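Field log, afternoon session.

UNIT: design team B
ACTIVITY: writing a sequence onto a fixed backbone
BACKBONE:
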């Protein structure tokens, strides 16, 4: 019988480093990451730390580039880290259910972070978006003169608070953060968040749109969680050939 678990489990930190490097490549292939953005995984050997590439374009990340980082933002080696590592740290600290996080500057998502129109699940592949995707307004934390980056623990905490118990939080004028219980789940959620945003924008060009109900979203997300391995395997093959 097929497991309802969303993804193949990584068995060791070394395997997770390989999986994380692969997640970077897959998200680059899908246009979710480019020179910027990042993806991380909670460290199975020490759940109060997480794995994240050193400061490097996602398309170049290999297993050797992965750092271990504590929740206070301290890297466990001397290589430079991503400025926005605090975003990951504070979400892992707040959400024990989260084992993987991606942060992207997707141009498809940004319009929904700066307009009055909320991002909604309009497609069964994005049922995890639910009925209300929250927007993090950094001005509420630091006023109207910041560079919009989540560059310290205080901002990370405010972002994690805005995420609440949702799967996705938009970041006004910046991008979005998405969480999952595994790298395959967070990669799929990042890809389908982006595609749902494009589908919703296209529907709005045609006129109105019909979002999923709360129950439809939950049911669709449950069904898709049982099929994530199919997407992960084909994306993995494309990204390694
Ligand atoms: Mn960013």
């Amino acid at each position: 019988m097929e497991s309802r678990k969303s993804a193949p489990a990584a068995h060791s930190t070394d395997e997770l480093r390989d999986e994380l490097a692969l997640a970077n490549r897959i998200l680059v292939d899908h246009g979710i990451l480019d020179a910027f953005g990042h993806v991380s995984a909670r460290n199975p050997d020490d759940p109060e730390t997480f794995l994240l590439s050193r400061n490097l374009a996602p398309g170049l990340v290999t297993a050797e580039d992965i750092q271990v980082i504590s929740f206070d933002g301290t890297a466990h080696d001397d290589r430079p880290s991503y400025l926005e590592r605090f975003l990951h740290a504070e979400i892992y600290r707040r959400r024990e259910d989260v084992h993987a996080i991606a942060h992207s500057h997707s141009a498809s998502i940004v319009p929904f972070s700066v307009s009055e129109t909320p991002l909604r699940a309009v497609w069964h592949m994005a049922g995890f978006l639910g009925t209300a995707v929250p927007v993090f307004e950094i001005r509420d934390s630091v006023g109207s003169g910041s560079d919009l980056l989540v560059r310290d623990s205080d901002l990370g905490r405010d972002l994690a608070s805005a995420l609440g118990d949702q799967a996705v939080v938009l970041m006004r004028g910046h991008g979005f953060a998405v969480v999952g219980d595994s790298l395959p789940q967070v990669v799929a959620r990042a890809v389908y968040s982006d595609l749902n945003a494009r589908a919703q924008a296209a529907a709005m060009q045609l006129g109105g749109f019909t979002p999923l109900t709360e129950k439809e979203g939950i049911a669709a997300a449950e069904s898709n969680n049982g099929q994530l391995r199919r997407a992960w395997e084909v994306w993995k093959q494309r990204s390694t050939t």
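LOG NOTE: The longest strand covers residues 175-180.
NEXT ACTIVITY: expression trials, pending approval
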